[in-house]
Amino acid sequence: MMSETIQKYYQTGNYQVLRQFKSKKNRVQLIEISAGQQVIRLIEKTFTEAVALKKELSMLNLLHEMAFSVPECLGQFDRVLLYEYLGGMTLCEKLEIAEVCEPDLFSGPVNRDSEITALLKKTIDWLNRLHQKTGLTFYDINLRNFIVRDNLIYAIDYEDFSKLKPAVDYGRLLAFILTYKPVFTEWKKALIRELEDYLNNEIKVNMDEVRHEKERELARISERRAKLV
Ligand SMILES: Nc1ncnc2c1ncn2[C@@H]1O[C@H](COP(=O)(O)OP(=O)(O)OP(=O)(O)O)[C@@H](O)[C@H]1O
Ligand SMILES: [Mg+2]
């Protein structure tokens, strides 16, 4: 469906809301437009702040030009961006399922090849390419900001891109993985060791910096959680 048709249907309220996603900052919904024989599902992201929309859009255009795997933007309004619906699962869901379905993954003498390790290494590669090509850090490394489709990692949510050290992204990634429920399991610690080896041997990032950033983020997370109790 052409994006003008999408915009026309959307602007006249000719769509249905199918579900709402979890979002801290904005409102994100899956919507469906029926235009004659054609049915199209889209993500509607309504921004609280207009400046956040502008930043997201300019980063999306930059990533798109550089051939990063990102969803296509199919409509743009004052406070709303319409995105191609990727389907698939978030990395957060993948992690949760892997720990339940493969509890013995890291307990043998040699680690088996696993989907979750491969996906997280691909996420590290995505971030490494971002650092190398743009000099920017992703910063908002929440595993719900990465979607897995056809074995490819798509990143969404570019509002918090900033100019920091690459180690910040990697340290935050490791801290987030460790603190999803159930937190700090032996399984997660073994996964982290494997990712740290990858960062050290393949990405060749300074691991003292990564571990420092990981500890800083763990401290922030525990502060945030203490406030919630
Ligand atoms: N193009 C897409 N295809 C499929 N699902 C998507 C897409 N965009 C967003 N989602 C879903 O919506 C959720 C929220 O999207 P996004 O992270 O862009 O919003 P946000 O307002 O920045 O959220 P938060 O503030 O919680 O980070 C994602 O975790 C994902 O589950
Ligand atoms: Mg998000």
From TrEMBL:
Report the Pfam families cross-referenced here.
Answer: RIO1 (PF01163)
Catalyses: L-seryl-[protein] + ATP = O-phospho-L-seryl-[protein] + ADP + H(+); L-threonyl-[protein] + ATP = O-phospho-L-threonyl-[protein] + ADP + H(+)
InterPro entries under this entry? Kinase-like_dom_sf, RIO_dom
Question: Superkingdom, according to UniProt?
Answer: Bacteria
EC code(s) of this entry: 2.7.11.1
Q: Where is the RIO-type domain?
A: 48-158
Keywords assigned: ATP-binding, Kinase, Nucleotide-binding, Serine/threonine-protein kinase, Transferase
Q: What is this protein called?
A: non-specific serine/threonine protein kinase
Q: Which organism is it from?
A: Acetobacterium malicum
